[in-house]
Amino acid sequence: MVKYNVGDSMTKIGIPKALLYYRYHTLWETFFTKLGCEIVESEETTKEILSRGTNFAIDEACLSYKIYLGHLESLIGKCDYILIPRIATFCDREIVCTRFQAVYDVVKNTFRDRDFKILDYNVDVCEGFSEQDGFIKMGQELGKSKKESLEAYIYAKGAMDAEHKKQIKLQKEELKKDNIKILLISHPYNTYDNYVGKPVVDFLKSMDCTIIYGDKVDREKARKKAHKLSPTLQWTYNKELVGAIEMYKDQVDGIVIMSSFPCGPDSLVNEMLVRRIKKAMVTLILDVQDGTAGRETRLESFIDIIKLKKEEEHEKSKN
Amino acid sequence: MKKAKISFPHMGNYCIPIEVVLSMILDCEYLTPPPITKKTLEIGSKYSPDFVCAPFKYNLGCYIEALENGADTLLQTGGVCRLSYYGEIHEQILRDLGYDFTFINFGDSEITKPTKIYEKMKQYNPNLTIKHLAKALMIGMRMIDIMDKTEDYIRENVGFEEEEGTLDSLYEAMLKEFRTVRSYKSLKKINKRYQKMMKKVKINKPKNPIKVGFIGEYYTALDPFSNHFIEKWLAKRGIVVTRKLNISNTIFFRNVKRLNKKVKSYMKYDIGATGMDTIKEAEWLAKHNYDGIIHVKSFGCTPEMDAMPILERISEDYHIPILYFSFDSQTSEIGIETRLEAFYDMIEMRKEKNK
Description:
The structure holds two protein chains of two kinds. By secondary structure, chain A is of the alpha/beta class. Chain A has helices at residues 21-34, 47-56, 63-75, 98-110, 131-141, 146-175, 188-191, 198-206, 219-229, 236-248, 264-276, 293-318; strands at 12-15, 38-41, 81-91, 94-95, 117-124, 180-185, 209-213, 254-260, 281-286. Chain A contains twelve helices and nine strands. In chain A, the strands form two sheets. In chain A, strands 1, 2, 3, 4 and 5 form a five-stranded mixed β-sheet that branches. In chain A, helix 1 links the parallel strand 1 (12-15) and strand 2 (38-41). In chain A, helix 1 packs across helix 6 and helix 9 (219-229) crosses helix 10. Chain B is α/β, with parallel strands linked by helices. Chain B has helices at 15-25, 38-47, 54-68, 83-96, 114-122, 130-157, 166-178, 184-200, 218-222, 230-236, 247-252, 256-262, 275-287, 302-318, 333-354; strands at residues 4-7, 28-30, 73-76, 102-105, 210-216, 239-242, 292-298, 322-327. In chain B, helix 1 packs antiparallel against helix 6 and helix 6 (130-157) packs antiparallel against helix 7 (166-178). Chain B is globular and about 65 Å long. At the A-B interface, helix 4 and helix 11 of A face helix 4 and helix 14 of B.
């Protein structure tokens, strides 16, 4: 067990800043703060964290997962619990990559000899485990009553939804801009990661592009749109991104798809997108190697083509 | 109207029960795709996305070869991992290549549920009745069950036949007759006859032979071509091979709750696809004093990848060696053989030492 200073009575919850963190962090942080816990987040991703994670992962595991293990390990010894969600299904035909089902058990076995406690919740609606029940259980494990936990959950959920709505609203303003607009289609854990997505975003911004984020979208509407484009697609997180393309594609100049190697769902979904979406598009595959020159050259020529096309259209409309 | 020519990609010998069931419920002729060769995989890989798992490439190769041989209807089963989305992408790629065909895709349904099969198949054969379907499925299921049990027996004994090749040729003949089966009675009759003949095959098994368990990802473990015929390689060296992974054990007789309880000491949740089965099987093999375990999967298979750290722990706890293979479309034969040989030498030496 981790021992901490006398007088420091707050339970410390460690949250690895990777994978689902970028989707749920408002929910988690609000919930645990409301229950009187202290949050300990891991640092931003660095090369060091990635290489630590790579040591613990199966060598062909996806980049995002290697990063996750690095973050998780960095929290061991710094908190009382480490939060690991286990997510499988949201409802019939709304599932996630099996990796999110397995994280808990993989971590438990990978770090079997290390001393730390895991706080987990299970979302598997098809098997009768709802998110709400999962959070109540966590609250109870932390010594809170059912009522307290439920209230904290509802409050946190509201905070998360409000935050998401705010983000969508802010993005609407971005869409009004006149410069080149690029729709970035990538899982939030890649988009917002300091080591993975941020260099790409920064580079695009340096080329005077406005980034429209695929994950900032009305999720329910996006899933419906995705179902129309690809009826047998079941991965919820991918559906939302696919739907975002349908909703934003007419308002942007080009699409950048970014996937970590070798992402299971993306390996097929990207193929579908390339074949069905008629829009300027470039796919970036991110791996452990850190050279950025190749990636930047591709992005640069992509933006150049879009610029040329835009100028041509502009000329045409003048005549 | 011309009869439809329907085809389903190879996976071990399972295209035979599929042929029987489809011939019974649809007004069609079944076209067995040409046997999988290196060429199949080459064609499949050429048109597949870069880092999709190998079964997708095998399937696509089989589809193209079937279409080239005159098939006009294709079937995709769907499944619980990436497999659920295979069908739609297969169809898209084949259409973009310019092929004209009907695609029966269970990607939006569940092929393990008879009611869903009825719903889907009714679209292709409006005259299909529940009774008719039930009969066909019963025969299909029973046939798979027989095949799985027979293959289990062969795997454990084929390395010790007095006359090499007897069991395999008997099994081949049995399968050939299975293709013509259209009633439960004839299935029973053929089975009885061949089981008798197989039991008569002389087996000279030593008292304490080397035993190896074979586990891993569904397609790669079940399809001999895609695992580079490892089981055969082992059998040739006089090794008992045990593999519980097959359709009957993972679909017909799978009880998730019981499975979950069995693997409790290593995992709390279902990690997806056949991950739990892999762990259960590995623990069983370890507890039953097997000499080694071979784990196969295709490159990038997420559920099996997630099973690997747990397998490591089982290996540690029970002191059982595990050899891992991850196959893609390019895997050198020599590399596989070298690793197998080293593994074989190692477990043989361990066995000697522990005598």
